[in-house]
């Protein structure tokens, strides 16, 4: 292994030292006090490479003693990523009154684009979630690439600005990570399942998308969104869960035929479409609000358009919940008056919710077509 330590003692991998490393398996782990020399080396390297990314400076931290470095490794999670034994990325977090502040995120330029920053964030955010701590960070306005990466992960810009450091004319913005809701946990758990039967039957009935527009209302984990895209549909995926855009960006990538919106169902705006799919989502509104949503869904479908929705029956355990619209079979039939009801499959069974609570399920799986 060849080394170039430079005049200031910071190890810089030579160009030939990096060849063959990119793409090799990476090891991501929590740093301990015994890693202080490795942490010092890559931290100083990051300050030299990207001085405007950090509130601290190379000269300040070059003067740190061994005790200083060891002490810093006790102040919250510190994460290292190594390839072939060489540290190539780092990051961490330190407690603040508002929660946990992410800091020190940096990846060696020769190793960027391989998900190392995401791996670091996963460990740091996981540490905070275990302690029910909110997560935030600062990003330089002059670094749109870093901002985009944080937004891709799920961070949201606050609009709150401050100087990079005292006397600096550069501005940094605070970003925060939305808390993990029960729906976020539920959606994460759904990522590996197959598309639901109702979606598959709708796709079979409607035929190839051929560029037509489908709306996936309450898209959740995006499993059915993917099925629609793969069948040739353009898709508008709508969900009220704030983490949806970041989740779908990670799982589906940047597809030109996909648009993702975060909107509440009570006020959602829908374009003209040839298919509307909504799995276990439409009923999660109070009964008084449901007719308005149903009217927007019906109004969005073009003549001959397809509707695939799950409705909750009146014998379901959720019938006692004022925030859920339930209905009898007669009410379902009246709701579909004027439609071509291709299939109304009624399902009733005892089971459990995602959280493990015992529940009686009563569901109508509806496949219908708008007349015309």
Model description:
The N and C termini lie far apart (73 Å). This protein has helices at residues 15-18, 36-49, 58-62, 66-72, 116-130, 144-153, 182-189, 197-206, 223-230, 244-252, 290-300, 329-335; strands at 26-30, 78-83, 86-96, 99-107, 135-140, 156-163, 171-177, 213-217, 234-239, 258-262, 273-278, 301-313, 326-327, 339-352, 358-370. It is elongated. It has 372 residues and is an alpha/beta fold. It contains twelve helices and 15 strands. Strands 8, 9, 10, 11, 12, 13, 14 and 15 form an eight-stranded mixed beta sheet that branches. Strands 1-2-3-4-5-7-6 form a seven-stranded mixed beta sheet, sandwiched between helices.
Helicity range: 25-40%
| Secondary structure tally: strands | 15
Rg over CA atoms, rounded to whole Å, is 26 Å
Distance between the termini: 73 Å
Compute the number of helices: 12
Oligomer: single chain
What number is the mean pLDDT? Answer: 89
Sketch the major β-sheet. 8 strands, mixed
Q: Would you kindly provide a brief summary of this structure?
A:
The protein contains 12 helices and 15 strands. It has 372 residues and is α/β, with parallel strands linked by helices.
What key phrases describe this protein's structure?
372 residues; alpha/beta; 8-stranded mixed beta sheet; 7-stranded mixed beta sheet; 12 helices; 29% helix; 31% strand; disordered N terminus
